Amino acid sequence: MPVSYPIRSLLYLIFLIPSVICAIFCLYHFITNRALRNALNNHVVIFILGFGVFLNMTDMIWFIDFYRTRRVPIFTRAFCFTWAYIDYAVFVVITLLVAWASIERHILIFHHNLTATPIKRFFLHYLPMAICVVYPLAYYFVIYFVLPCEIVLKETRIGCGVLDCAQSITAVGVWDSLAHNVVPICMIAIFSLALLAR
């Protein structure tokens, strides 16, 4: 049984407020405490929290407003494509960062010598995080702002219906599903269970 839009709006709001407060509190402590800020294992957590707060303060608020009014908050082409871009790109950034964090824990716990020098740290710590951030932002920029997506914008659809652009080309849709959802989620599960087993 589907949940009605007003209930969805209320549920999002109830959980959004404490989520943002907790994330900002944690982010503040990670950034202001030098020991926490310099610890390699906290870098990816800082990125996840930062992107999470950004997603909550934009995308989630737009979802709440949409579910409350049943209309897109600002019905313009620029807003619709920006909403779709943020919804997909930032979500995938967070997913890839969590997947990388689940792999990196093994390196930092069991193979800490792999991050002992600046060069090793660059290739096994900073570069993977940078890829996890830059790749989805660039990929979805191309999907939403470079590739042609002929779609009729609808004020009564989430993201004006622009979200369908990521799935409109079959090969792109398959890549999007596998590379940005299936593989990272499997990696998170496998590496987290492997850490418990070790």
Automatic annotation (TrEMBL):
Keyword terms, alphabetized: Membrane, Transmembrane, Transmembrane helix
Positions of transmembrane segments: 12-31, 43-64, 84-103, 123-147, 178-197
UniProt protein name: G-protein coupled receptors family 1 profile domain-containing protein
Organism (species): Adineta ricciae (Rotifer)
Taxonomic lineage of the native organism: Eukaryota, Metazoa, Spiralia, Gnathifera, Rotifera
